[in-house]
Prior knowledge:
With 360 residues, the protein is an all-alpha fold. The protein has two domains: 175 residues, no CATH class; 177 residues, no CATH class. It has 15 helices and two strands. The protein has a two-stranded antiparallel ribbon. Helix 2 runs antiparallel to helix 3 and helix 9 runs antiparallel to helix 14. The longest helix has 43 residues. 47% of the residues are buried. The model has no long low-confidence stretch (mean pLDDT 87).
Amino acid sequence: MTGEIFKPLIPGAILAGLCAGFASLITILAPAYTETPPLYLLYQVLNIINISFLTYMTAWVGYSAADRFGATPILGGMLGLITILPEINDISKTLLLYNEDVPQQSVLSSGSGGVIAVILGVYMLAHVERFFRAHIGKTANAILTPLLTMLFCTTIYLLVVMPAAGYVSSVLCRGIEFFCMSDVAAVRIAAGGLTAALFLPLVALGMHLGLSAIYVTQLNESGSISLYPALAMAGAGQVGAAIAIYLIAKENERLRNVIRSAVIPGICGIGQPLIFGVTLPLGKPFFYAGVGAIFGGAYVTAMEVASINWGPSGVLAVFLMTAPSGAVWGMLHYLIGLLISCIMGFVITKITLRPEDITI
């Protein structure tokens, strides 16, 4: 369900991620970019495109969720936008729910619950709107239904949904950070390897889009995403496996043509052509690719690589990476992780797969 909500947002997420990456690259390659007007203008344009998506993410999610749940999309967008308005803090103070000393620990504050709250709130809104439409005459429907729906849903949203979702979001992010960014290297390595191995099955089942809610939540909570770099290793493991299959399947020109056309998108982070055209139909290579990804996922989490955004994957995501030692080191460790995953996916597949196993 969440996958269908985020699917229409993917082009915006990719665009925002690329713009954020290129803006980050400018700051690295030209530290004095503010003193060069054309370069500074380019940086500002890239940055404002990125901000336009991320800042109003809750509104985009609300609009898409309303469309998915059968509610009026603009009402869902409005409920999503309400989530991030600073006036939420004023309401929280009135209700004595705001912590002046530590705003992040408030029961209710601007942004509480993020996209998780929005999805739950819009789901409620869809049912409430249908109820009012069924019980209000056609003459007054256009006026009373939106009014009553928003008044009722906004009240419940502020008092119940946002505080509850805020608590869940905090627990979820702390859990991810505890494992993926743990001070204990062994814990980070195990978490990175496991998540990288499981990502390809999630993509094959279409469940990976649901992870967008986790990305956005963690980005809002901590300013970076620790899970995304490890998951990106899965695509590199599959690229390595595909290259090995290409070398093994010397007599299968049709399959080699598929690999030739799908491997470049795979390198850029678009893994579905390789999944559905090569590795999944063959079975074993799909598993080998996941095993190869374990090594890269373990490496990037061991190096505490995190991303400043989400959207593009593969080599396209390199400029989104950072680490405690700095953005340049984050990018370098990410590339090393991709290379490790690709090599291990290749080696495991090349050693284990036999020509007779290739039956497509």
